[in-house]
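Q: What would this chain look like folded?
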Amino acid sequence: MPKTLLRTFLLATVTLPTLLTARAAIAENAGVETVVVTAERRSELIYNVPATITAISGDQIKNLGYTDMKSVIALVPNAVLPDDSENFETFINIRGVHQADINAEPNFGLYRNGIFNGGVRGNLGSQIDIARVEVLSGPQSGLYGRDAVGGVVNVVYATPKLDDNSGYVTGDYGNYERSEIQGAINLPLGNDLALRATGWWINQNEGQLFNPTLDRYIDAHRDLGGRLSAKWEPTSQLSFLWMAELEDVHGPSFTAYAPNGIGGVFNVNCCGLPVEPPETLHTIRHDTPDTEHWQQFYLSQDINYDTESWMGTFELQGAYRNYVLHLQEDQDHTAFSPATNPMMIQQIQLRDEQLHNGYGQLIWKSPDDQRLTWMAGVDYFDETFRFDREFVGTINFNLLNNPAFGPGFTYANLLCSFLMAGNPTGSYNGGCEGTPALGFPGLPGAGANGQFPYNVPNIGLQSGGNAFGAPGSGINSMSVSGFGTATYKLTDALSITGDLRWDQTRKYLTYRQGAIPGFGATALGTSYLTPLFEQIFVPYTDIQADTYVNLAPSVTVQYKLNDDANLYATYATGFRAGSFNLGTSSPQFLSFKPEKDSNYEIGAKTLWLDGTLGINGDVFYMLQSNLVEPQTDPVEPAFIGLYYLANVGEARTYGAELSAVYQANDWLNLGTTIGYLNDRINKGTTHGQSLVGQEIPLTRDWTLDFTAGVNKPISAGVNFVADANWKLEYGGYLPASISNLLTTRYQDLDKLDIDAGVLYDDTRIVLYANNAFDSVIPQFQYSDGVENVNLGRTYGIRIQKNF
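A: My prediction, written as structure tokens:
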């Protein structure tokens, strides 16, 4: 353990300031046990929930100015959120269980106000006007179902109140010319109906990343959204909650750079090919704008009927989500044009996605005030995901006839040797003749044994379109499940809970790969480009279907030593359905199996000092099977860097979490969380290479978090206010290439977010600095050496008015 980490650990252990469980808002002069959550689909005090749960209050999120899920997840022990450089997916890693790639479904159960919001694209967008975020750590499939292998994230938004005419507005201006306005208003309309309207506008004109080639900031963006919710309670037994949200985002499609430089032709540094020099965050040289636009529309309904009898409560939930993405990316990550070098292929990626899904669930809950309580339910999920991932390649044919290594070998021969298969004996002959027996046709006019030199027509710049997922490709998913849970109080102190869920998911894949028309291609150009590009985009069409069935049990024993000590032991399982890759060299690599895990855990929740100090701790041991990780595509040329997802083996993880929260007095609260993980792959290979003993990538060995909140009166009607969140992450590895899971150490992160100012009447004015230490480290590395980093220091002023 590094010395700085050891000192931090000892400091946290001695000072005891936080807790995973009660990190939610603590009312003035109230104890930590007042926090109410719905983590087990019932409203209950967080102290009484026999599970490892972090509840993060909306006030804390709002005061710190957090609008992204990465900052929120940083408050959870043993949880990290690596940056997605393409910015349209949310990768949450809880206890080492992570989403291997955008081809896989999320590794966590995602819920909005207790309603499932998962599916292929777990894009959470901005987090505005939140009541709290609840994070259940560890597998939860028994109660929550599919995707809950790492845990569950439930975002609980502020909902209408029938007796509260109030609201807020917040304005924020900071560096990078970033401005933000958000606000909400709660409007009671009579005794039984209320509305809540929320809106936000976030605009950033500059950024951390600059492209001097195009004279533009790469990470400039704009986010516009609104949410309208309504609550109707026609009787004391019946209630309706409706919510609609629309978010529209324009931003960057790729936020990464090449610190060691990059080769202009598939990152090959030889043969006199052009090489980009090392880049900095301010000298990222792309000649195509990296842009994306996505829009998400969401509807939900939650109906509750309380029979006020032994029959308990019935709850009917429903949701609909529509998501659209349009993306353009400089795929060669350079500013080299086809005129730069005869071998230069300018590459642009165009991605278009459309997703819509529907979810329905019926839950029957028993009354809470009896020795045996139970819950049963059924749900149905249907999703259609359409994806087009097109690549446009442009070559200057006029330069290909230039001699490469003397007059007997042209650049056309050299290009062919890179991209084409050559003859079956493998002799080096330029490759232009192809291998028809293997499905590689070669180029027009190339002889059976190759030609030296091989000449192409002088037809100038020619473009061609190819696709990993041509238009019409898509995945349809249908899932049905049923579950039951029951808790029996053996005594007032001892209880046992059992969960059992049955899931069946059916997925259908329609997939087409290869050349596609358009993009200004000519007939002559296509006759030469298509056979070249088919060595990468091997043409085929395939239809596959698979069914995944799972039975997920869990059992928990809870024992209350006294009013201030609560012990629990849990066995739980997790399940993420299998699926299909969105691009491989051949149909045999398209599908991968479900990923499962099982977790053994014991924990304790304790209260001290009349309930003002809460200390929670847990230890766990988890086994993962059919671990999904990227694999090198063995059919493609290795330097291209293409990959697919596959089940590589098994892993085991053990760890511990310690959390505490302390309400020191009526104006100061303190907190800390500590997470430790030891994760190893204990069974598995990748193309014959053993993975045994390797750590799971993108997983931290240690996570530590310290928080403080101050609200101290300094004069009549004026309070000094301040908030701080200090996040430390240590250890782990980045997946620096797709052929070897462990190659580059994950650099340590030391991140401090802080604000301070005054609260006057109902107006809060603060100056803030996020990532005040400017800790900027790699978050992910790609096979061509390009890497993305977290956001560095930002600062500004924030004004919030409550009314």
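The two ends are 49 Å apart (CA to CA).
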